[in-house]
Design goal:
The structure is a single chain. 52% of the residues lie in helices and 17% in strands. With 382 residues, the chain is an alpha/beta fold. The chain folds into two domains: 178 residues, Glycogen Phosphorylase B (Rossmann fold, 3-Layer(aba) Sandwich), CATH 3.40.50.2000; 194 residues, Glycogen Phosphorylase B (Rossmann fold, 3-Layer(aba) Sandwich), CATH 3.40.50. The strands form two sheets. The chain has a seven-stranded parallel beta sheet with strand order 3-2-1-4-5-6-7, sandwiched between helices. A six-stranded parallel beta sheet has the order 10-9-8-11-12-13, sandwiched between helices. α1 packs across α18 and α4 crosses α5.
């Protein structure tokens, strides 16, 4: 069968690539065409547009690139219609993907499956109408979404587990590098590591990394700071944000870094969940300009109490979240110091991680999703 996938950022590229590999195991004749990235391309198929040409974050960047965004949407719609796939699989990225879903529902008979459902439980809950009308099957990777979609909105979904569990489990099963080897390969000393994960987008890095470094540098006498570089962001950009600080920048080794880290400062997103799966104590940091205004809007607009996946899955505060006006250098320093020097606090965080891991369930999310997708498509053919 023919599968058309759309992933609009790095995390979507990663998850979609694993789903594609699982689809190939379920369907030996699988053919792929996609908007995505290098990881999807490594599985096979025809890339149409790279996600780097799609991902714009924030009101102003979106406005400045509206012509490009609309042109990409037009290209995507025309390409799907021309190729006539058996299914279109959308991966997160709701602003773009729900527009594609609406078009397909109105102008074609191509089924639409959504893998990694839009986070409408956080905000823009009105999008449930679009999902109900335009998405044939929804595949969730977060356990609390079942109650939101099925009980609150009476829309049945498939909870398949979380692919990040698979990715971390597969890595840990094969990783053998010692702390000494890691330090030697990357030019680090013998001090314990504080990992800094400032996000994958330029604006996130610009806003968060300088403050993370200033907070962690006050503890630097006993620790070394290591920044996890995101794919697609050039080292020079990090250098400008780091301002000559004594910190090491490493690309492509985020998982090994988390294996060896003592604590971490993490910008909210999938990275908070990854950090919890490695059981690294963390502070969630997300700075925004006009922080007090944003904090007020957050209370008025957001439908959830927390912003990190760790706390959302646990249903309580496992890790401290410093968002908007709460993310000050002083606050980050105080919370980081607690994680490094208060064993009771560290044990509390790790116990919360264990609870999160239990709720997520066993590895196998891409395989479960692929099996359901192929079974549904074959049953409709029959």
């Amino acid at each position: 069968m023919k599968y058309y996938l759309i992933a609009g950022e790095a995390s979507g590229d990663l998850h979609a690539s694993h789903l594609m590999a699982a689809l190939k195991k379920e369907d030996a004749q699988a053919r792929f065409r996609f908007f995505g990235g290098d990881l999807m391309a490594s599985v096979g198929g025809k890339p149409v547009k790279h996600y780097r040409e799609l991902a714009y974050m924030g009101f102003i960047p979106v406005l400045l690139h509206l012509r490009t965004i609309f042109a990409n949407m037009k290209l995507c719609k025309e390409d799907i219609v021309a190729w006539q796939p058996d299914v279109v699989i959308l991966v997160d990225y709701p602003g773009f993907n729900l527009n594609i879903a609406r078009f397909l529902r109105r102008h074609t008979h191509i089924p639409v499956y959504y893998y990694i459902s839009p986070k409408i439980w956080a905000w823009k809950e009105y999008r449930i109408k679009n999902i109900k009308s335009d998405v044939d099957e929804l595949f969730s990777i977060l356990p609390f979404e079942v109650e939101f979609f099925e009980k609150k909105h009476h829309y049945p979904i498939h909870y398949v587990g979380n692919p990040t569990v698979d990715e971390v489990a597969a890595f840990l099963a094969s990783y053998r590098e010692t702390r000494e080897d890691f330090n030697r390969v990357h030019g680090l000393d013998g001090k314990d590591i504080i990992a800094l994960l400032p996000g994958s987008r330029r604006q996130e890095i610009k806003d968060n990394l300088p403050r993370m470094i200033r907070a962690a540098s006050a503890l630097q006498e006993g620790y070394q700071l290591v920044v996890a570089g995101a794919p697609g962001i050039e080292p020079e950009y990090y250098s400008r944000c780091m301002g000559g600080a004594d910190a090491k920048l490493l690309f492509g080794v985020t998982y090994p870094l988390l294996v060896h880290a003592r604590a971490a400062l993490v910008t909210s997103g999938t990275a908070t969940l990854e950090t919890s799966l490695f059981r690294v104590p963390q502070v969630v940091c997300y700075y925004m300009s006009m922080g007090k205004v944003i904090s007020l809007l957050k209370r008025c607009v957001l439908k959830v109490k927390y912003v990190s996946l760790v706390n959302l899955i646990a249903g309580r505060e496992v890790v401290r979240e410093l968002v908007a006006d709460q993310m000050t250098v002083k606050q980050v320093f105080c919370e980081l110091k607690r994680l490094l020097y208060d064993p009771v606090r560290t044990d509390e965080v790790k116990a919360g991680y264990d609870e999160v891991i239990r709720r997520l369930g066993e590895p196998g999310a891409p395989a479960r999703a692929a099996h359901i997708m192929v079974s549904l498509l074959l049953s409709k053919r029959g």
